[in-house]
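P.,

For your records, the input lines for the assembly:
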Amino acid sequence: MDKFIQHLGVAAPLIRSNVDTDAIIPSREMKRVSKQGLGEGLFAGWRYLQAGGRDAAPEFVLNQDAYRDASIILSGPNFGCGSSREHAVWALAEYGIRVVVAPSFGTIFANNCIRNGLLPLVLGANIIAEIAAWVAQDPCQNKVLVDLPEQQLQASGEAFNFEIEPWAKRMLVEGLDAISLTQTRWQTIDRFHRHRQSLRPWLYQH
Amino acid sequence: MAQTLFEKLWQEHLVEKQSDGTDLIYIDRVFLHERTGSIALSSLRADGREIFCPEQVFCCMDHIVDTYPDRSDETTMPSGRDFIVATREGAHEAGLTLFDLDDPRQGIVHVVSPEQGIVQPGITLVCPDSHTCTQGAFGALAWGIGSSEAEHALVTKTLRVSKPKSMRVSFEGVLAAGVSAKDMILHLIARFGASGGSGYVLEFSGSAVADLCMEGRMTLCNMAVEFSAFTGLIAPDHQTIDYLRGKPYAPVGTLWDDAVQYWQQLSTDKDATFDREIVIDCTDIEPQVTWGTSPEHAIPINGLIATAFGHEAQASGYDKALEYMGLTAGQPIAGQPIDCVFIGSCTNARISDLRLAASILRGNKIRPGMRAICVPGSMQVKAQAETEGLDRIFIDAGFEWRASGCSMCFFAGGEHFDFQQRVVSTTNRNFESRQGPQTRTHLASPATVAASAVTGVITDPREML
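Structure tokens returned:
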């Protein structure tokens, strides 16, 4: 997985509460048994004029010239709530989004982000509104810089510190594969597994 | 030291603490379905990784399969067949148990697992499906994950998890007639917001929870994820044990006795403390119905649209939700004309839900011109309903009586309601376009849905009891 160290990019405001994973990628856009080919379906319900169509809805933020190259999304609380579909993250990543900034995230969505090199970045709603206002003055010039090792987001000449759990930071900064990491603990897991079979034998009866 | 039930379950499954602050948690059982499981299975195959303990992995066909009587691998959803076939082939190749399309046990994963006794108190169970929290009703630690985490659980038999906080939600008092578990959970979400449970494992307790049957408890836990909780759970009691006795995957012989003895230890110690406590007086709860596009937009059925608890953060999204739903703030929700009703989903399509709806529909007809659909939660639920003659009540009332699956709980390009149709639904999500393009979904209990089907407007079920 690609490492996430620093990212500088255009930030697009999508300031609303509870942007659910159905909105991020409608189920009807998940057409193949694949993690690829999902970027086109990103925000399809808002981005296109008709369900299943591809005519751009002009008012949607990512369709506006100034935000066309956005790689950062600024949003409201509980971003990524709802369905566990990892397709939401795959769609964001394929479109080119590296960071989502919101006051809070759906738990499964945030975990899915970490597994795919996307940064779910938590800042207060007031700060996000401030950043969005500054970006809006000139989105292509007023780029936002995110420094993960420093846990800092820079915008409007200010530096905002953010919190992130140590494990999530490490996974992203080092670009780790969780399965490989856990497999190094195999002996311990196997010992636990065998102990559990004797402790709760009814689970292994069938 | 006094422990909560959640802490006991966590301790029971803690393989070891990791240096990065996460815990390596042993996963007893994994469920997959053809929507997301198919991708996890093909991704594992592509990476050359093998499933450890395939005998503890179960697959359901529920999300994409059609629910028409003559269904096959061909689906109304374009390319749906690919997901079905990939799951079937992946399951066979890896030696997983599959409840396939033609299996009399087929149905929605969170209905099938309890029916088969696969979920049991004290286990960890995960599935790449957000409503896995449903199964916490059995005193299991069951939660929804993404596809990558599912791969991790399949290969390593563990997950790396940052330990959530704990919250006790006590529902005290007695529910009024016509009020059910769905109303309890909608009330909770409306009152504390759709992110009110974020970061917590919820333990539902209190006299009203003890009074719920197992199916009601599943409805309650089902929507813990709509409260943004990590998951929800309920301590097992005599009802839990009675429910599981004799189920196909339940322990047998002396192991049953051993299991029961262990299950009876699974409760929160008297002096244990939670990170947060909420107490709700159930005598206050009325039938709930949502007016907007988030489950937090629930109001009492005699309430006014967009006026309920409405703290500031919630109210900021009201305009968009009202516009989408084609409604005006301050108007009564009761009496709103509807186009369709839907009874189905892992939330409310078990036999008790169907019995409740049928008790209201008996001898009645749906309002002419409306579309009404009932999709039983599993083929076993369907068979049981048919044994009891409930299918005749639904059909005589004007309902379509379907085979089992997730069906129109969500729109995947196949089965759906039409453009801007107003649907009263027993499902769990009223998100934009969730049940079809631009559909307007109102979440409610089976009783409210049945009552509304008869009148053709959103109706308080207490008027029809």
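Two observations worth noting. The mean pLDDT of chain A is 97. The first strand of chain A starts at residue 6 and ends at 14.

Regards
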